Amino acid sequence: MRRTALLASAALLTGLLPWATARAADDPPPTPVDRFEGEVPFASQPAEGIFTWGSDADDPPALRLAARADAPEGGKVLGGSYDISGYGGFTHDFAAGEPAHDWSAHEGVRLWWDGDDSGRKIAFEIKDGGANGEASELWTASFTDDFTGWKQIRIPFTDFAYRTDYQPVGGIDHVLGLKEMWGYAVTLPVGVKGDFAMDGVELYGRADQSLRASVTTDAVVHPVREGATARVKVVLSTTGSAPVEEPVSVHYETSGGTAEPGRDYTPVSGTLTFPAGSASGTARTVAVPTRRDKAAEPAETVPLKLTVTGAKAPAETPQVVIDAHGLPYLDPKLPVRKRVADLLSRMDLAEKAGQMTQAERGAVGAGGDIAAYGLGSLLSGGGSVPTPNTPEAWARMIDGFQLRARATRFQIPLVYGVDAVHGHNNLAGATIMPHNIGIGASRDPQLAEDTGSVTAAEVRATGIPWDFAPCLCVTRDERWGRSYESFGEDPALVESMETMIQGLQGRADGRDLKRDDKVLATAKHFVGDGGTAYGSSTTGTYTIDQGVTTVTRQQLADIHLAPYRTAVRRGIGTVMPSYSSLDITGDGRGAVKMHARGDMINGELKGRMGFDGFVVSDWNAIDQLPGDYAAHVRTAVNAGVDMMMVPYGYKDFAGALVDEVEAGRVSERRIDDAVSRVLTEKFALGLFEHPYADTSGAAAIGSPAHRAVARKAAAESQVLLKNSGNVLPLRKSQKVYVAGSNADDLGNQTGGWTLTWQGSSGNVTSGTTILQGLRRAGGDVTYSKDASAPTGGYDVGVVVVGETPYAEGVGDVGNGHDLELSAADKAAVDRVCAAMKCAVLIVSGRPQLIGDRLPGIDALVASWLPGTEGDGVADVLYGARPFTGQLPVTWPRSGAQLPINVGDASYDPQFPYGWGLTTRTAVPKGGAATLRALAVAAATAERAHAGRTGRELVTRARLLVQEKADGHLTEAVAKPFADADHLLLTGRYGKAVEKLAEAYRAA
């Protein structure tokens, strides 16, 4: 039945239903939305229909239209079953090709629900405004299944709140208009198997003015200096900006709070009136005078209670806050340690627990819990962004959260954190750098620092002072889904790229953290996350991520701890432990989760290394510890974790921590140490003086200057593995045939952690694809993604293949991923390379197994994940910049070789660690005698600490070896060649050339 016919029959249907709820005489008849008799199909946009959704393949519920004798309306109901681990539910979207529906005449929506008294909440969402049901504003309410059998659930439209954790489009008007409705959605309970049945969704009742008019205040919190007058703006808003038809009155009264009336402020009360005909946006002001005295005091609150008639009242009571004043910790002239000591001495246990607690922005909604629990920190997980996702919206959001913190006794500012792991990757339009694996390939410490500087500037300009980067993992197995987050497999390479810390934070003494273009950095994941054994993970379907790293103490020190020693020397502000477990051979403890290893966090990191920043847990990581929740909390805190990332469990954590301290299982001394560390960084960041966003640098976000750095990084990250016949660089005069899945896909070339946690294919943000870069370079380019277009008449082919985005253990090999090219990519390579000279670019986060096709490929490039600036890739392809990159990891011949790393006793890869042909200059002339002379000169440079000269000499020797060995790499060549690059990075230039001479003799 068409919806127009269904709506027309509403009165008739209501009269036929024996259980129809009585209605007031002046109420309009109910308007059916869904009867579930088959009039609405199972379908999705753009057609009208009911469809399911969920966070993964198992989470969407199973739906059916079921005949039931007890159906409240008609003969059928909508029934289904569910078993949801993430999120899941179903939606009824109205047809996008038809006009939106007008629900403004009604009081609310009601439905029949078959309850089983589970006590769980069912979320019910309606869709308002926008282009269609999937591009609208989402408004949410809920009801509790605390009954048995059929019950009619009534949800007045006044109960619906704008969703703050997710919106599908940019903000439309944030007003529930009801005149352009596109359907509804139901979110089912998580973590328990269940069945449900519902029937008879319909609109009921008569709308009153409170549905069309609301009263708000300009802010919920109004901080004011002692003695000044707070001015609270009270604003009338209406749907569609129509004037109110009836008068609206607002009675106000100062009452309650921690401030003393008559001493701290002058009490006020009265009534504001908005007459009939008042326009939307009309405002009145309530002035609350505060009084000055000579005493130093914490902040005090003055609630302004509002009683509204004729419109919807504000969701929260606004508060005037008289700022804390006169206390030593507020004096910026005092040393930080004295400010910390003073503040700490004034805090109670609950306030200290709050400072150790970090919640997700989506969990705190409008932010009331920030003050209620004295939260110390918020974060945005991957893809957790404001609506719209703009720099201005980020700054407004974070300023709003900081404003909430002003309502606490000591007004301790929040420190907001985000995973900006290759640029400000949560922000649409930001400059996206190559992932760390590409930065490692550049072998350019200055470039690493420059990329960190750009990232810091763009992050801080949106109000965020803390970045969960860089990852200092040493990747030892390319089957790991986080391989691309590492600078490489050699700890010496990782250490050399830690200049990024200075790019993010500035000078090692922390003096630059107050700047508007620097952020607090995080070394992660301490320690050994890159060394987990394949098959050791027990997290879901992961195969290697979050698994077990088994090492001797010497291996632990040399490989995995070494980058953290460097980070501490560079002044790193925070450290994040790994999800993984550490098993140290011979210590008798077996595999222990890193969040529980006090010997590593307290003993190694804070003790022997002297780390004086704070340790923050990973996302819900304490939930992986053994025992009950109280054991999770005390184990992690006692092990040395100072702040707990408990995104949605912040109330439970704060309460459990207080209980553990009061029970004597966590010492107050330990709590004071943790809170002191957190407060020290907040003072260092200047947040007490400047808690709000400094957006003066926002205009530079995604600017040409920033993108120039990313373009250079993309170019320097390209590693030329093979170049028979000097196919590369291309010439502008050549006709070039471009193919492959990753040639024209910005999402694929930016990879995971881009706009969302996992990333996605397609045009996800602003940038230039590799194909676009080739065209912008002025080349004569023809493109056929699958190489199905005719291949005749071209001089050279460029086939861009590789991976699609993933992140963390989702990308583990064996968890739906492998190291093989897709069938379509293989076919494209075969077609193009059979028809012409060809260059194959592999866009991926790790090596791909290409050995069976290598003989038919003229040029092979490891492009890694170059970020948004495909122009940088085109620069090296066309010779505007030379190829200079070197492999940051070993490129295996087969999966059977994994794991394979520089220094292994048996080492016979496809391409060794450090390999990278160049198009910079002609290869130096000479042979064994030249290498002997270079070795002598390099040893001299080493003794003289002439690093630049030493590196240049080793590079000349490397190019000689590559010239001779290209095309017939054997184990006898590969092993000393890779060892030489490690020696170079550790400053042993003479030994490096000796190893290269050994490789030369074997070639």
From TrEMBL:
Catalysed reaction equations from the record: Hydrolysis of terminal, non-reducing beta-D-glucosyl residues with release of beta-D-glucose
Calx-beta domain mapped to chain residues: 225-308
Gene3D superfamilies: 2.60.40.2030, Galactose-binding lectin, Glycoside hydrolase family 3 C-terminal domain, Glycoside hydrolase, family 3, N-terminal domain
One Pfam family it belongs to: CBM_11
Alphabetic keyword roster: Calcium, Glycosidase, Hydrolase, Repeat, Signal
Entry keyword annotation includes Hydrolase: yes
Domain CBM11: 32-206
SUPFAM superfamilies reported in the protein's UniProt record: (Trans)glycosidases, Beta-D-glucan exohydrolase, C-terminal domain, CalX-like, Galactose-binding domain-like
Keyword Calcium: yes
InterPro entries xrefs: CalX-like_sf, Calx_beta, CBM11, Cellulose_Degrad_GH3, Galactose-bd-like_sf, GH, Glyco_hydro_3_C, Glyco_hydro_3_C_sf
Position of the signal peptide: 1-24
Enzyme Commission code: 3.2.1.21
Domain Glycoside hydrolase family 3 C-terminal per the UniProt entry, residue ranges: 719-918
Ranges in a coiled coil: none
Annotated Glycoside hydrolase family 3 N-terminal domain residues: 349-680
PANTHER family with a match to the protein in the record: LYSOSOMAL BETA GLUCOSIDASE, PERIPLASMIC BETA-GLUCOSIDASE-RELATED
Recorded family membership: Belongs to the glycosyl hydrolase 3 family.
Name of this protein: beta-glucosidase
Taxonomic lineage from the root: Bacteria, Bacillati, Actinomycetota, Actinomycetes, Kitasatosporales
